Each structure stands twice: as structure tokens, then as C-alpha cells.
Amino acid sequence: MRLRIFFAKTDAMRYTSHLDLHKTWERTIRRTGLPLVYSQGFNPRPKLQLASALPLGFTSDGEVLDAWFAETDQSTTQILESLQRAAPPGLKVHKVTEVDPTKPSLQTQVRSAEYVITLLDPVPDLEERLESRLSVSSLPRQRRGKTYDLRPLIETISLLLPDELGRSRIAMLLSAREAATGRPEEVLDALDISAESTRIHRSQLIFDD
Fold this sequence. Notes:
By secondary structure, the protein is α+β, with helices and mostly antiparallel strands. It has two domains: 2-103, Pseudouridine synthase I, catalytic domain, N-terminal subdomain (Alpha-Beta Plaits, 2-Layer Sandwich), CATH 3.30.70.580; 108-207, Alpha-Beta Plaits. Helix content is 22%, strand content 36%. A hairpin with an 8-residue loop joins β8 (154-160) and β9 (169-177). The chain starts with a strand and ends with a strand.
């Protein structure tokens, strides 16, 4: 039985690493008493699969986990309620659905990621910066010592209405495929904005149909 769990990672878990998040999910599911399926071999591991690693310091409303269970007579609604009770602060479970176990791995189905960036400090000429970066056909950048083109990884970028504190916000839809992943902090760098002076929130992961 393969279940897809939709969840948020909020402020209390901003600095929980991808590996530690995996362990947190393992502990959370164990607390529910649900029968996790384990891998075979010398060192069995629970069959858990996160869709996409969320960098340290980011929050998200749109995270997704696939988990494999032995058959259970509980409904997905009952499982959702059990997970919500067992989840630690910073982990909020929104929805649980059953998935065909023969479908491809979750990571290979991620197509794009949507982000909302809140600027903690005023940035002059923000609209002009966005327009100038979008108007070019190429944005050469460096990653791990290699040059790559950031521009095709930016699907859309736009200004949102300010938040309740009057701070500027940017919406980005970036490619999130395995061999072509756009990073919001690199887009910010291309806009001459320090990522350290922002709050980055992943609002949604978009999957292949």
C-alpha cells in the first residue's frame, strides 16, 4: 500500500536537514502504530520517499512524501488524523491519498517548484530588475565551478502584493527536474539581492501529469 502524504514544513523546522526530516517522518509514523514496509537486505530501511529536498532555512506548504505500508483496515482519513496527532511542531499534515504502487518514483515526477520570496529589506528598482533579467535570452551563472544558463530554469517570475508588514514579495516558478533545477537563491543573486535578507517559502511542487 503506497500512500502520498502532503505536508507543510513551518518555522519550527526551518533548520531541519533533509536527512533529519526523513528520520522525523520515520519516528512520526512509528508513533501512529501504522505498519511501515521495510526494504530487504542487511540494513532494512523504511520505504519512505520525499519528493524534493528543501534547503535549510526554507519553509514550505507544498511538501510531499510517499510511504509504503502493509495492508491496513484504516481509511486514508483515519491515517491522516493519526499522522496529524503524531506530528511534531513544525510538521503539519494536510492530506493523505492512496497511490498506485507501480507508478514511477516521486522524485522523477517533479517538474517545477513554486516559491514566494519575502524581502526583509527595501530593494530599489525591484520591478525594473525583474524586467531586465526576464528580457535577456541567457543568464550565465556558476555552480560548483561550472558555467550554466539560469534563464531557461526560470519559468515565471513576478511581483506579488506586499505582505501585512508592507514588505515586497516575489513569486517564482522554477524548473525542478533532476538535471535542470532552478534555485531561488541563485535567481536572487542574479537580481543582486542577498538571499540572507529574504525569507524563502516553497508554496507548491508541480508534478508531471
